[in-house]
Amino acid sequence: MYGGDEIKITPGMQRYIDRNNEYLARRARYIREVVKKWKFDTIAVHGLYTVEDAVEDYQGSIIEPIFMSTAQAFRDSDEMAAALAYLIPSWTYSRIANPSTYYYEWTIALLEGYGFDGETSCCSTSSGMAAIMTAVQPFLVHKKHHAHEPRNFVATAQCYGGTYQQFQVRLMEERDIECRWVEDPTNLDEWASKIDGNTRFLYGELPSNPGLGFFDVQAVADLAHSHNLPLICDSTVATSALLRPIRHGADLVVHSTTKSMTASGFGIGGAVIARKGLVTTIDNEALKNDFSLYIKYLPNRDYGPNLHPMQALMCMNDLRTLRSRMDVLSQNTMKVARFLQTHPKVESVEYLGLPDHARHELASRYMWLVDAEHDEQYGRPVNRYGHMLSFCVKGGPGPTRAFFDALQRIWRATDLGRIKSIATIPAISTHQQQGEAARKLAHIPPNLVRLCVGGEHPDDVIADLDQALHKAKS
Predict the structure, then answer these.
(1) Is the pTM of this model over 0.70?
(2) Concatenated DSSP letters for 317-373?
């Protein structure tokens, strides 16, 4: 597939190819006939790790083994040649793949593709930032093979500070690849006005960190596809338990699995999930047919942003309870948001679950607790809006810092998505480097606090916020 035409296939290689084609056909049939019929929670718990895998290959281990090995040994030269020509599935070297990361990728691809009729695949990365780099770089190659070829892409200005730095500094300032920022992602005309013949993709973060930006995924995907361009979505904050953009037309989804997916906070990870058969103006059939496999075997093989197998399994253990955890954290956050909305020391609150929020109706069309209609507790579709909110403290930066420094139970850190509640001031932390003008573009004032509500009882979170707010004196 990725070089097989350049190598002579021996009879010994063909035997390995035939045997592995049978394996791939069995796995595809198992996914189609068994796994695709499971509910979300069952997929999250089991993924593609079966009793047969455990008994036949891993001495009956109930939990997926961690393969702490740099490389794979081969039976003979024929198997090695077939594997290195990407003619058979293998892992070869842990910079490229590893059995532990395969189980991680299969699970995440199935969760992100839950309810989607087509096929999805996933490539793991060492961080969320590596996932973004991995997702966008293949679309930014030169088509005409000369240095002055203009290239641009369109992205929401309301995004994580690291995303802004990668697009604005690493790509635009250092490589002269233009990022055209969309200030109001709910305005489809603004998206459309920034697309031209040199545009390579559209990129949006929703809900955005920290401003809770949102947009109409289906409408933006349709716009992108009308220009034969892919839509890439960062859905880190929502996770596949609340939002699955591929179901609504997006081509790729990126996650910092460090965050909401992995609530324990034990390590860094990322993932790129793609629909098979995506649209693009790039003339590369392997990229179009299976983007995740393409980037795993070629660009990421060369760049090396791989995920450690230990981290893959640690993330998977948190994924097993993703739906119930996001449900609880969302309910906790709603209660905290209502409290903050009525507090005399709070200027404004951004939380998509609040009925009077400007983007509440739009978010409510997309953000649903997966399988709530099949849950005995609910028995009907239920909106959930995630664990992240932001609010502005009255009086400006001084009172905001006084409030922040007075927190006793809520942790002061730049992290998010933890099982413990964490707060930060984006203007002096996650979005500090992008400067005042860019923060204004992204609607991040100096008195904005981002709060990610954890699994504590919400009354205790509210009590800590209340006592700290009362110390926020001008």
Answers:
(1) yes
(2) HHHTTHHHHHHHHHHHHHHHHHHHHT-TTEEEEE-TTSTTSTTHHHHHHH-B-TTGG
pLDDT at 3 over 60: no
Q: What is the pLDDT of residues 206-256, one digit of tens each?
A: 999 999 999 999 999 999 999 999 999 999 999 999 999 999 999 999 999
Residue carrying the six token digits 């990126």: 254
Q: Are residues 308 and 455 part of one domain?
A: no
Question: Residue 401: which H helix or E strand, with range?
Answer: helix 397-406
Domain range for 205 is 97-319
What integer best gives the mean pLDDT of the chain? 95
319, 345, 377 - which closes a domain: 319
Cross-strand pairs, 202? 154, 231
User: Is 400 found in the same domain as 286?
Assistant: no
Structure tokens at 314: 């640690």
| DSSP-assigned states of every residue in 288-309 | HH-HHHHHHHTHHHHH--PPPH
Number of domains forming the structure of the chain: 2
287 with 356, same domain?
no
Q: At what angle do helices 77-84 and 11-33 cross, to 10 degrees?
A: 60
Please report the DSSP string for 232-273 in residue order. EEE-TTT-TTT--GGGGT-SEEEEETTTTT-TT-----EEEE
The pLDDT-based confidence of 144 (bands split at 50, 70, 90) is confident
Task: Give the whole-angstrom CA distance, residue 38 versus residue 279.
Answer: 29
